[in-house]
Fold:
Amino acid sequence: MTLREYAAVVEEKLDELLPEADKRTPEIGEVPWLLQNAMRYSVMAGGKRLRPAMLLACADMLGAARGEAMLPACALELIHTYSLVHDDLPGMDNDTLRRGRPTNHVVFGEGQAILAGDGLLSLAMELLIENAMAHPANYAGEVLAMNEIIRGAGVSGMVAGQCMDLYCEREGAGGEALLTYIHMNKTARMLISPLRAAAALAGLAPDSEETRALTAYGVKFGLLFQAVDDILDVVGDEKTLGKSVGKDAGSGKLTYATLYGLDGARTRADRLAQEARDSLALFGDRAAFFHGLLDSMAHRVS
Amino acid sequence: MTLREYAAVVEEKLDELLPEADKRTPEIGEVPWLLQNAMRYSVMAGGKRLRPAMLLACADMLGAARGEAMLPACALELIHTYSLVHDDLPGMDNDTLRRGRPTNHVVFGEGQAILAGDGLLSLAMELLIENAMAHPANYAGEVLAMNEIIRGAGVSGMVAGQCMDLYCEREGAGGEALLTYIHMNKTARMLISPLRAAAALAGLAPDSEETRALTAYGVKFGLLFQAVDDILDVVGDEKTLGKSVGKDAGSGKLTYATLYGLDGARTRADRLAQEARDSLALFGDRAAFFHGLLDSMAHRVS
Structure:
């Protein structure tokens, strides 16, 4: 299955989990219409569904049951969406548009957008727990998968990366060690956890050869993903503004391209892609989906 | 043990979980100093530690292991704190003081306060998962306890109550059904879940006689807790402003006191207290802690 095919499956499940709700006084135990519609607005706003697709593709590759992988996959997308909703808030990036549509707080107001983000993170956890309770024969694997996803998003994962990213932006702090910390946590962790969670659901130990190879792929792919974004930022700026490229290329934001210039960033991206490819050797032809992701990254910057 | 004694035990554990951190570039896998200190600031700002104390007291009453109840108890306090940090934000209640100290966003900035709240909810979940992984012999009870806590805080629980509370405040909506929904979810659910989580850890089924009795107590105590708050709001207003009490008593906020007047609210509070007391019959003398909580509520409004 291709990324697009996995995305369609995830999209259908998300739509089922968060249907459009009519305005009415909620019953005890019901999700209120306003919260549901605010969450739905941002979840159904498009996107590649990359993280859930990676979890499903990895589960398929390792022979885990699709039925057991679907809710964890959706949980990943809810967490990714919560991070975008909170990121766009006036107190953070203050963005009014995302994917061409008004951001959540523009439509629902700042207070409801904060709660929609809180709700999406909560709902992600609720889905993970529901999944564990539905598969008691695999409690160990379920709890381990939960651990990978929640820790990847948590205080030494995604939230940690956002905290340091905001700190650098506001305080002008920098340096390569901090940059690597931010990229690893803000971006890579949520691309590693789909793979490690799928491995856990498939019954693989966290230190098994397969899980280690998948982790290596996730780290390199995650850093590559961020590197490509940063390169496109600079190339975009060059094209639109005719800016010179060098130490201060891009918007002044701390990136590898601003640290080492565009050529340095491109060399690093090529190296990361090769290392990611190498780490898939163990899986042979079964890893076609993950080779495909690397091809599409190369295509973006070519 | 008294509420104060349980609170001291919880306080010590929270202090250990979130020690003051020195400013330095974080290592991969580490919580960044800034996030940790922002979370610590609000967690260690005092408070009665009512929710964790209720979980520990209930675990003691039912004979669950204290060692297995401690992290879920702390998770409850982290969730309670996250809700306060986000509630105080400019986009929500816009409060600059809580318990006599500047609120989180006043000290750390709005963006970091949003992330501190996100971090506290994430960390709560991380602790619950850590606890489950540390007690694999009781996976079923652990996952069930997790379910009670996370659902109580989630999109059909606390977040739902906050969403409708904010909606009523901004849109001027009201009515008794909506008021009950808000009180049940915003306040009562997080006072029910400590009891149901403790029962789950003790190996009791969600529909056991004990769990049903504890739930009944939690519902009545939770509604009483909110009722007492609302009565004190009105009495406070009367004392300080000499306001007349009736349909529009208090600050115009939708409460039972504004719906039925102070006498009506007091009669209702007495009834809730009696019903809460009755639901403890099953536990006899072992429920002294929970009778004590009702006594302290009666004391507040006498």
About this structure: Residues 243-250 of chain A have pLDDT under 50 and may be disordered. The radius of gyration of chain A is 20 Å. Chain A has two domains: 1-204, 207-302. Chain A touches chain B through 67 residues (CB under 8 Å).
